[in-house]
Amino acid sequence: MDGPRVFLPGASRTNVDTVALTAPSASSGRLVIRNVNGRTTVRAGNAADVQVSATRRTVPGLTSPEVRLLESGGVLTLEAVGATNLVFGIPSSQVDYAVDVPPGTEIEIQGVSGAVDVSGVNAPVSVTTVSGPVGLQSIGASATVRTTSGDVRANDLRGALNVSTISGRVRLVDVDHVATATTVSGDLTIEGRVTEGGAIRTTSGDVDARLADNSDIRVVVTTISGDISVRSLSFPDRRQDRRSFSGTLGSGGEQLTINTASGDVVLAAR
């Protein structure tokens, strides 16, 4: 997932340099990353410190932003100061972060425009962005993602996931607990074994739920004007009419609800 690049009408190049920063983990174990324009990649590493490689891209003739990694109030914060002035309506600079953290670091990312990828962390993760796509991989704790138009991909999450987007597409694979997943016009796909309850809601987006045979969940689907299809899944207590469905996989237990206004819903075997 590539982030935006800095381009100006008539400009053939940008000034590029890389800044390396290292700091001990904060006393709280929390890292906040603020990035107005640029890609943010966070990976769990073996070092005890937080290590940052920041690539700055700046329009020629303008000052590059200052990248800071500072602790205050027990929280470590990474940000670029003086980062994004507009030139002809286009950002004058971009900062791409590659950050290695101890696995137990709690991550909070505040972005505007740019891709976000987080992998291998065993502590809570929170991502808020406007237009950038978000990817989560192998997260061992809870995660929250809020975006406006960015797509969201999550794979191999062990904690509860709460995700919301307006027009972005959402794809969730092997997520233990989809607590809430909400879109307006974006399609949503969930794939894997489901054993914990949650709520999936869309307005006009379609929902494709590909559930493993060994799932233990009660599934309840309602829609106002969308269609409901069930393929290659056996629900012993299945009840269905044109706009609603309910049925149990395995031992049942908790409930997964799927609600759409006009979006179609497909329930299928993984």
Question: In a nutshell, what does this entry contain?
Answer:
The chain has strands at 15-24, 30-37, 40-44, 49-58, 66-72, 75-81, 86-87, 90-91, 93-101, 106-113, 116-119, 125-128, 134-139, 143-146, 152-164, 170-183, 188-192, 198-202, 207-211, 217-223, 228-231, 239-240, 244-249, 255-260, 265-269. It is an all-beta fold and 270 residues long.
> Which fold name is given in CATH as the topology of the domain at 15-110?
Pectate Lyase C-like
Question: Termini distance?
Answer: 25 Å
Fraction of helical residues: under 10%
In the CATH hierarchy, what is the architecture of the domain at 15-110 at level 2? 3 Solenoid
SSE pattern, N- to C-terminal: EEEEEEEEEEEEEEEEEEEEEEEEE
What composes the largest sheet?
A: 23 strands, mixed
- The unreliable regions are 3-12
Strand fraction = over 45%
Rg, Å, rounded:
21 Å
**Overall average pLDDT:** 92
Oligomer: single chain
Q: What CATH first level of the domain at 15-110 would be assigned?
A: Mainly Beta
Number of strands: 25
Shape: elongated
Counted by DSSP, the helix tally is 0
Structural class category: mainly beta
